[in-house]
Amino acid sequence: MPAFSKKRLFTLLCLVFLILFTACSDDDGFEGYSLPQALRHMLNEVIVTYQAPGAAMAIRYEDGSVFSYASGLADRKTQTPLTPQHLFRIGSASKTVTASAVLILYQQGLLSLDGAVESILPGLIPVYGNQITVRMLLNHTSGLEDYVACPYEGSFFFYVLIDQPTRSWTPQELVAISLDCGLNAPPGQTFLYSNTNYILLGLIIEAVSGQNYEDFIQTNIFDVLGMQNSVVPVQTGFPGDFAHGYFERDKDGLLYDYSIQSPTAVWAAGSIISTPADLLVWVEALTTGRLLTQDAFDQQFQLVDMGEEGGGVAMYGLGILAAGNDIGHNGSVLGYQTQMFTTRGVHIVVYTNCYYQTKDNVSQVIFEKAKEILEAYGK
After folding, report:
1. CA–CA gap between residue 346 and residue 356 (Å, rounded)
2. Most buried residue, 40, 58, 288, 335, by CB count within 10 Å?
3. Which residues of 8-38 are buried (b: 16+ CB within 10 A; e: fewer)?
4. How many helices (H) and strands (E) does the chain have?
5. Domain tally for the chain?
6. Which pLDDT score is estimated for 12?
7. Structural domain includes residue 322
8. Would 1 be classed as within a structural domain?
9. Whole-angstrom Cα distance, residue 378 to residue 360?
10. Is the pLDDT of residue 1 over 70?
11. Cβ(57)–Cβ(231) under 8 Å?
12. Could you tell me where the beta strands, DSSP code E, fall in the chain?
C-alpha cells in the first residue's frame, strides 16, 4: 500500500465537498435546440465522454415547472436503463438534512448551538468536549480530524472501507478513530471539513430528542415534506428499484459494483437514499427555510470561510455550502456522486452512479454545464 498524506487522502474521500469549477468547452453549441433538448444532449454527451454508466438530472425552474431526465444504465449487468425514479445514495448532501434536524431541535428550545458537546454527550470527547460546541460541529470548525482520512488497521479508514464495504460500524467507533488521530486545530479557529462532526451530530440528535436518528429524520423532515422515496437506511441494500453504483477501486479505469454497502460507515454524515424528485423538494425547503423559524434560518446562513478547502470562493454555514450563486451541498460515497443546489432561484439536482478516482467528478461536470446552458437560455 503506497503512503498518502492526509491532504492527498482528502482528494480520495468517499464524501466529497469541494466545489470544483468546470467550464463548458467552446464547442458545446446547442443552436437550434430547445432547452430540454440541449440539456438532454449535454447529459448524453458527458456520460459517453467520461464512460460513466449513467446520470440523472432534475431541475425546477422559478415558475415551478420541472425538467427531469436520465441517461445510461442503472445496472450494467442486466443493461437496465437508468430512470429518474431510481433510488441512489446522496452522500454528503445528507449533511444538510442532519443540520436541519439539529436546527429543528434548536428552534424547539431543546439545545443551544453554542452549548458544549460535553454537556450533551458527556465523556465522549474526553479532552476537548467542553471547548467544542454544536455550532462548531455544524460549520466544521471543531478541529476534529475526519475519521475517513485517519490511519486504521495498518492502512487508512478509506481503504478499509473499500476492502470491506458491508462492514458494520458504531458511531462511537468512528469518533474513536478520529480521536486517535489527535486534534487537527484548536476548536473554533480553523475550517476543516470532517465527517466526524456529523457523526457526533447524529448522536446529539438521538440524545436530545430521545429518538433514534433514522426515526427523527423520517418523522420531522421526510414525512413533513412528503418525501416518500427518501430514507435513512439501516440495511446494506435499497428499499426499492435502485441505480447500481460503480467505483474505480484500483485507479485503473475499471469500475466495480459497490451498490451494497453499510450505511453505518457514514451514518448521519452521508447515508441517505433518495431520488432526484425528492431532492428537488428538499433543496427548495432547505434554501427557503420551509421547516425553520426565521431565527433558525438566519443561524443556518452564518457562514465561515472554507479557506484553501473552498478554493478561495466557497463558504460554509450550518450544514450548507455557498459558492458564488450556488447554495446547497454535494457529496460522494463509493459508487455515487451528487450535486444538489439552488442557483439564481433554480433548483438543480444531478447524480451519477459512478465514482472515479482518476477522472473528474462527472456529476460536477454535468452540473456546471447545465448552469451554462440555463444561463444561455435565460433561465
Report:
1. 28
2. 335
3. ebbebbbbbbbbeebebeeebeeeeeebeeb
4. 13, 16
5. 1
6. 36
7. yes
8. no
9. 27
10. no
11. no
12. 54-60, 66-75, 80-81, 88-89, 151-152, 155-156, 246-247, 256-257, 273-274, 304-305, 314-316, 321-323, 326-333, 336-343, 346-352, 354-355
Q: Per-residue pLDDT averaged across 239-268, rounded?
A: 97
pLDDT in tens, 320-358: 999 999 999 999 999 999 999 999 999 999 999 999 999
- Interval 310-329 mean pLDDT: 95
Give the pLDDT confidence of 156-168 residue by residue, as tens digits.
999 999 999 999 9
* 219 within a domain of the structure (yes/no): yes
Secondary structure (H, E, C), 107-142: HCCCCCCCCEHHHHCCCCCCCCCCCCEHHHHHCCCC
Q: Residue 14 — very low, low, confident or very high, per pLDDT cuts 50/70/90?
A: very low
Q: SS3 for 243?
A: coil
CA distance 304 to 169: 31
CATH number at residue 305: 3.40.710.10
Beta bridge partners of 349: 58, 340
Does residue 146 belong to any structural domain of this protein?
yes
**Rounded to an integer, what distance in angstroms lies between the CA atom of residue 103 and that of residue 295?**
10
Residue 271 lies in domain? 6-376
Query: Rounded to an integer, what distance in angstroms lies between the CA atom of residue 369 and that of residue 20?
Result: 12
For residue 312, what pLDDT is reported? Answer: 84
Q: Summarize pLDDT for 75-129 with one digit per residue, the tens.
A: 999 999 999 999 999 999 999 999 999 999 999 999 999 999 999 999 999 999 9
The answer for residues whose C-beta is within 8 angstroms of residue 254's C-beta and 6 or more apart is 248
Which region, left, alpha or beta, applies to residue 160 given φ > 0 means left and ψ of -120 to 50 means alpha? Answer: alpha
**Cell numbers 470544483 correspond to what residue?**
20
Contact indicator for 372, 347 with CB cutoff of 8 Å: no
Distance from the first to the final alpha carbon of the chain: 48
Strand pairing class (246-247; 354-355): parallel
Burial zone of 76 (CB within 10 Å; 0-12 exposed, 13-18 middle, 19+ buried): middle
Q: C-alpha cell of 249?
A: 477501486
d(CA 92, CA 17): 7
Residue 57 · residue 350 · CB < 8 Å: yes
Q: What is the DSSP string of 73-114?
A: EEETTTTEEP-TTSBEE-GGGHHHHHHHHHHHHHHTTS--TT
Can you give the pLDDT at residue 30?
66
pTM above 0.90, yes or no: yes
